[in-house]
Amino acid sequence: MYFPDKLYKCIKIYDNTLSIVFTNFNRGTIHNSKRFHHRNVKFIIKADFKLHNYHTTASNVGNILVQNNFKTPGSQFRGFKPDYTNLLLPSTTLHLNRNLCRFFSSNLDKLPTKKYGLSKIMSLLWPSDTRSKLRILFSMVFLLSAKLSLISVPLFLTSLINSIIKPPNDSFGIIPKLEMVGVSFPEMYIPYVYLFGFVFSKISSSLFNELRNSLFSTVTERSARENASKMFMNIHNLDIDFLIQSKSGEVSAVFSRGIRAISQILRITVFQVVPVILEFSLVTALLCYKVGPMIATISSLTVILYLLFTTLVTRRRMIIRKEMADADRKASGLFLDSITNAEAVRYYNSQIKELERYSNQQMDYEKHSVDVQKSLAFLNFGQQFIFNCGLFLSLFLTLGDITKGLAKFDNFIIVNTLLFQIGVPLNMIGTMYREVKLSFIDLQKFLDLVGVKPKVYELPEAKDLVLSQGKIEFKNVNYFYPTTENDPHIILDDFSLTIPPGKTIAIVGDSGSGKSTICKLLFRFYDPNSGSILIDGQDIKTVTLKSLRNTLGIVPQDVVLFNESIAFNISYGKPDATLDDVMRASKLAGIHDTIMGFPDGYDTIVGERGMMLSGGEKQRIGIARCFLKDPQILLFDEATSSLDFKAESQIIKTFKEMGSNKTTLMIAHRLSSMLIADEIVVFHKGKIVEMGTPLELWNKTGYFRQIVNSFNLKSKSDETTR
């Protein structure tokens, strides 16, 4: 196998795509040291790789995971393929010394880009209901009527002129045809008939256009609403870890832009593209019929050159506009970052330094903005030059025919009017091209997002969970995070546990030992890699997600609230609850008096993610929400971690009363929370190391006591710090 002696490359990032390139590539071995910068993160890559059978293995620094799209057997493998001089790693994960440094980019960047056929796109654009299809049909009829009315304007105008300077029989031809059916006009009124037709054509064209707009706007908005609702549910059905690892702002942006792109493509197609094509066809046909094929050909070539020039220049302008938008985004980000760190700026007396940074960024924006304006000036001049050259040539030839007696004077008016008429929509071609291209890019990303297949899904034959006692069984459950192919991060290792119906089991262990994962597995946020979870003998994979999650109630450690009222947040698990029910649950959670102390009481808006409330208040609202739902199986994931001792004692007492006849699973750190449990399960590295009653485990002086003592020391340290 032959390798080039040297490949000179570098490390770059293009739109969150990491490109790692090495130097000194000498016949199968890479020796290299590179410093890699990404935002505020620095990586030092020191690699000594040996290539063997298209694979790389690290000899001194762990490994670098590589995903590539080379067309070779196996869609993914580690390493470099010879004969290729560039290697792109699409949103890859970079591991240096295993856990020393990790570079994760957004999950959205990892989505595979697919090509979607016309049928897939049309399924989003074309409505499914008959009523909307009829609206589209009538919109097209109104569009055709509007264009026919519009091109009749110059015909009425020339007939008006001819009726004044020539006999009626030499005119547009409407009067003689009316006389043939017995309708006659005095000669003096004939110009007024053509004048009326001229004005009526303009009015009817405007009327038909507005009728088309009003009809089709309903179609576009309804299509956007239906697609938004359908895709909203698709996103909520994605795996929870995908949504957690993705940036919520990016998901929201991709979703909103995708929905907007659907409306935009529909609007541009029906309101701009189709009308321009139809008008151009009618104008060309009319020119060919009234003036001659030569003028029609020149007009067609003018339009084609106009479109080609506009498309080519607009492509370049899109790049320049993107550079301007990037410069503006960087300037805005720098401004926001500087204001956010206003204290640090003052600490180090760096106002002038910040001004220099901001001014430099603004200068970059100024340069790109000027480039955009210059490119726009070039586009406008080029368009006008092409159009007016075509207009001049058409009028020159028409005038020549008139002077030779081969054509009438009204041909000059028809050519001039029709070409100027079609020139108006042509001015929008550049904007149309840019908007359509950007809309299809947004639609592509949107379809990639909603096309993600969830790993956790409901089986078609799934049945509702039938709860009789509330017995929970974990049978040989294994679960791990796929950090690498050969070194997965094991969370649960052959985990087996039975929670008898009506009993309270507490789970304790080190941070990261897999305690919270148990709750998420019960809710089927994840599925175990092997093993099974049963509730009353029914595998939770075989029951409907709705019935499963209706059976369970949880108070998580980190309670996240909606930016709505307190009453809305508490009643979220039971939307039909009355205000009295909400207040009763709040009293049980010890939050009622605090809520009534707010000016708006239960109508108080909690802010984004509940930022208007303290951690303890949010946790008690989460507890009240669980109490109100009154589920048959209770899960408490460190539900009192943000409460003081007095509040915790009150809540624990309520827990005990509430869960007296219910199966309860508690994840706890504090000894006071564990004491109400019938049995305690001690976790360490994904395995159960101890199990027993609180008293039994305390007397054993084993791992349980070590955990409790370490938590007590930490709690005292935190109190001293406060």
Automatic annotation (TrEMBL):
It is a multi-pass membrane protein. InterPro entries: AAA+_ATPase, ABC1_TM_dom, ABC1_TM_sf, ABC_transporter-like_ATP-bd, ABC_transporter-like_CS, P-loop_NTPase, Type_1_exporter. One of its GO terms (biological process) is intracellular iron ion homeostasis. Keywords: ATP-binding, Membrane, Nucleotide-binding, Transmembrane, Transmembrane helix, Transport. Residues 472-710 form the ABC transporter domain. It comes from the Eukaryota. The chain crosses the membrane at residues 136-157, 189-208, 265-287, 293-314, 377-400. Its main location: mitochondrion. Residues 137-438 form the ABC transmembrane type-1 domain. Belongs to the ABC transporter superfamily. ABCB family. Heavy Metal importer (TC 3.A.1.210) subfamily. This is ABC transporter protein, putative. It comes from Theileria annulata.
